[in-house]
Automatic annotation (TrEMBL):
The keyword Lipid metabolism does not apply. Transmembrane segments: none annotated. This is Uncharacterized protein. It comes from Verticillium dahliae (Verticillium wilt). Residues 229-271, 343-365 are annotated as: Disordered. It is found in: Nucleus.
Amino acid sequence: MSLPALDKLGFLSLIPPGAVPASDEINIELYFNRHPSELLIGQEFVSEMNANALLILQRDPVRVADTLSAIGYAYQVGDRAGSLLPVLNRRARILANLRSMKASSFYFEEALFLLLGLCAMELVTLAQPGHHATIPTVLGNVSSLISHHTSIGGEISFVSRYLLRALARQDLVVSLVHLRRPRVPTCIWLETNDCAKADRLLGYTATLMPLLEELCILAEDMREQILQPSHSSATDQAVHENTAASISPSSQDTSYATATSPRSSDSVCSDVKRPSAITPFFNPSPESTSIQLRAASLYQRLTAWSPPITDNTPFLTTRKFRVQAASYRSAALLYLHRLQHPPSSSIRNDDASQPAASETGTEAEADAAALHGAHDVLLYASGAPAAETKLLLWPVFLAACEMRGEEDRRAVGEVLASIAAHRRTVTVERTRRFVEERVWRARDAGEDWNWMVLAQKWPGECLPI
């Protein structure tokens, strides 16, 4: 297997000869050559990600190589006709590997890696528009895995936190879409030391994540008033299904029950074992009795938040991080605004500066404020080189839902096309179709175009990861 990019790692391979089937080598090579470089915020993180993958590969060559090969194979077949079944077979092998894993000191890390591999396959090919997306189910398994690991006093290692950050990013987006609290709480993976440097996916937004987690909790508490009774939870049942029993260690002594729901994040966080030199960055604030007070407090803290980027770092070096930070903060403020002020149901007016005839003054003002916030997101997302905005799908999705005029819709379509060209995940097209076929079409027809409602009405279609 020829991996020139890995030579710089100085990694001495301890993988036994023959542990990786020759037929898998081309797919593993494809994984290393494409997945990190296309998925990450910048090329400077590729070697770091590869090093962590190789570390886990050396601990369990057979299972981890199978996962890497499955992701590489998903890249190889793409969305070609007839490609879905063989990719599903590869996914089934990963699930079988999860079921057969024995308890070990590295079980938690390896299980997280395999679950992250399942998510990667979804992003690369399985979550094509029109196909069922299982990332929410995988994240339910992650939650059960965390719950078990912390309940028995397991430590959260550096490698575990590295993997959890990637899962937490996906989980936050899914949680915001489904108006529920995260399955991967920030207390599990966020440490003070992690915030001083950029992350491969989060950039410098790690310190924003606790605020987004709080936003998810607020959305869950407001869920009933946002959704119509008719939209209640056929979706929740599907999303909360999990097959955690299939990923528990084979040893009877370490298997964990899955008949009950995962413990609350507060309970999980209280069990986390940390090195004495490291303290958690975030402690959940007490519940407020007033939704309005909580929203006002969150608004103030989101407005005041800024990324921990030092001013002596060159601008061109930090531009992509600043763009990501500004976009995410603007999107969070837009999301908070829409929690409190749902969209009006009105027929589109091509002149976006004019309210539609059926809007009341209050609705028109709320929609105008939301459009202003959406323009803020697009200002950041379209101002930097396209290659530096490929991780902005969630903010751009929120902005796209607010677009009414044809010019604005074309502009946001160009940004989505740019993200698709540089990140090449099938969830971009899935998101574009949801915006155009569900949100914009409903708005143009004078129907309820609140994306929060439509995402529950059409479960699984909205996946802006």
